[in-house]
């Protein structure tokens, strides 16, 4: 999900995770389904809104912060 948020293509995700682009595509499809998102952009918006991924500072180019989990009240 963090790689998706960074705008990586399925091929790039696959290369970074040492899996095929097709396998990355399947994982991305599963992420979209679990989030109830119609596309990659919506999935990233949901992830940011719910705290699953922290927004990166503009132009950082570095790794995203550790994912945050929602806290219980």
How would you describe this protein?
By secondary structure, the protein is mainly α. The protein has a domain at 2-50: Winged helix-like DNA-binding domain superfamily/Winged helix DNA-binding domain (Arc Repressor Mutant, subunit A, Orthogonal Bundle). The protein has 4 helices and no strands. Residues 62-67 have low confidence and may be disordered. It comes from Streptomyces sp. SID14436.
Structural class: mainly alpha
Rg (C-alpha, Å): 13 Å
**Please, what is the average pLDDT?**
85
What is the number of helical segments per DSSP (H or I, 4+ residues)?
4
SSE arrangement, N to C:
HHHH
- State the share of residues found in helices, binned by percent: 40-55%
Distance between the termini: 25 Å
CATH-derived topology of one domain = Arc Repressor Mutant, subunit A
Largest sheet: none
CATH architect. name of one domain: Orthogonal Bundle
As a percent range, the share of strand residues is under 5%
CATH class of one domain, anyone? Mainly Alpha
The CATH homologous superfamily of one domain corresponds to Winged helix-like DNA-binding domain superfamily/Winged helix DNA-binding domain
Low-confidence stretches: 62-67
The shape is globular
Q: Count the beta strands.
A: 0
Organism: Streptomyces sp. SID14436
GO molecular function, one term: DNA binding
Protein name: Response regulator transcription factor
GO biological process, one term: regulation of DNA-templated transcription
């Amino acid at each position: 999900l963090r790689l998706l948020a960074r705008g990586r293509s399925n091929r790039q995700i696959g290369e970074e995770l040492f899996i095929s682009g097709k396998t990355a595509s399947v994982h991305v499809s599963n992420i979209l389904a679990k989030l109830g998102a119609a596309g990659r952009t919506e999935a990233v918006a949901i992830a940011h809104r719910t705290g699953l991924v922290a927004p990166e500072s503009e132009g950082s180019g570095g790794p995203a912060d550790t994912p945050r989990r929602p806290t219980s009240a």
